[in-house]
Amino acid sequence: MPEPYNKASTAYDLSLFDTALRKEKKADQPQEDKPKPELKIVEASASKMGRPIAVILTAGLFLAVFIMFLYSKAQLSEINLKVSEETAAYESAQMLNGQLQNELNGSVSIDKVEDHAVKEMGMQKVTASQEKYMEMNTGEMTETAAEEEDNIFVAIFNWFGDVLEYLGF
Predict the structure, then answer these.
(1) How far is CA 37 from the centre of its chain?
(2) Count of CB atoms within 10 A of residue 117's CB?
(3) What pLDDT does residue 60 have?
(4) pLDDT at residue 25 above 70?
């Protein structure tokens, strides 16, 4: 039988924690025989029939993601292979350029030019008999213009123009 409702605080009721009193209360209460719960086996219901479909869809999704991952890795490998091939071709071209640059620098020497002029073009070196010297007039090469004697009016006009030029007009 339950205890009547007590308005007082039960926080200080130490009898609740006394194990001897609890055993007595249990002994006073008649024990009822509770039936044991029975286990029932439930057949698959219609609500659980969607699970295989969800599992198949989830597996298909994971398979698609995995295939896309493998495809992207394959594409990345192909691109890396192309990059390495182009890098090798670039380095080969740089080495060939260096060799050709060295060959060009060696072919521009004076000896090579002379050999080419003599053998290919049929030229020959200048000899003393081919040299001709020309003698120039050793006198003064400049001539000055003769001063013209003008009349008095022209001299005054020139003087007046020189004065105006001096004054800045």
Answers:
(1) 71
(2) 13
(3) 96
(4) no
**How far is CA 67 from its chain centroid?**
29
* Percent of the chain's residues with pLDDT above 90: 31
Please say whether the beta carbons of 137 and 143 come within 8 A: no
Structure tokens at 137: 């007039």
For residue 15, give every residue at least 6 positions away whose Cβ sits within 8 Å of its Cβ, in sequence order, or none.
Answer: 21
Alpha-carbon gap, residue 135 to 81, rounded angstroms? 76
- Which amino acid type is present at position 90? Y
Cα-trace Rg, the chain: 61
CA 114 to chain centre: 51
| Token representation of residue 149 | 């004697």
> What's the rounded Cα separation, in Å, for the pair 134 and 89?
61
The pTM of the full predicted model, rounded to 2 decimals, is: 0.35
Average the pLDDT over 33-38 and give the result: 71
Tell me 111's DSSP state: H
Amino acid at 32: E
The two three-digit tokens of residue 73, written as one number: 């890795």
Structure tokens at 61: 């999704």
Three state DSSP letters for 114-157: HHHHHHCCCCCCCCHHHCCCCCCCCCCCCCCCCCCCCCHHHHHH
